[in-house]
Amino acid sequence: MFHLYIASIARVEKLSRVTAAILDVLQVLLASPGGGCHGFAIAKEVKRPTGSVYPILARFERLGWVESHWESEQPEHGRPRRRLYRLTPEGLLAARAVVKERMAERAARAVRYGTVLGTADGVA
Fold first, then answer.
1. Rounded to an integer, what distance in angstroms lies between the CA atom of residue 53 and that of residue 47?
2. Fewest beta carbons less than 10 Å away: which of 1, 7, 37, 113?
């Protein structure tokens, strides 16, 4: 018996530019890698308008960082179905690397300017 399998190799591209909004969304996705989050919950968590968050999620999906699907259960009456987003395994690695890199840059800037992260006046 002969079986033919067609597989696509996941292609993960690098972000060309990382904004504060992108970092915020990545951190929410990293905090819930398995279950996934719906876009409105992400927007609420990062305190940014959905008009900023959904394009970021769409971009992540095009880059191969995120996969999405519609929730399977029926929503309660009057609520639309939610689209759930979660990091792909490759996206998880890429997101961790971006966040780690940005945190290192932030720490380096803090040292350069004589401030301590997490304090208002630079005194620990």
1. 10
2. 1
Q: Confirm whether 8 is domain-assigned.
A: no
Number of independent structural domains in the chain: 1
The pLDDT tens digits for 81-117 are: 889 999 999 999 999 999 999 888 878 887 777 765 5
CA distance 107 to 121: 15
Global pTM? 0.74
Contact present, 37 and 83 (Cβ < 8 Å): no
Please tell me the distance from the alpha carbon of residue 107 to that of residue 43, in angstroms, as a whole number: 26
Domain membership of residue 64 as a residue range: 20-70+81-112
Tell me which H or E stretch contains 70.
strand 66-70
Q: Which pLDDT score, from 0 to 100, does residue 81 have?
A: 84
Residues 6+ apart with CB under 8 A from 63: 12, 13, 14, 15, 91
CA dist list (Å): 55 to 45, 49, 78, 120, 122: 16, 11, 25, 33, 35
Whether residue 3 is contained in a domain is answered as no
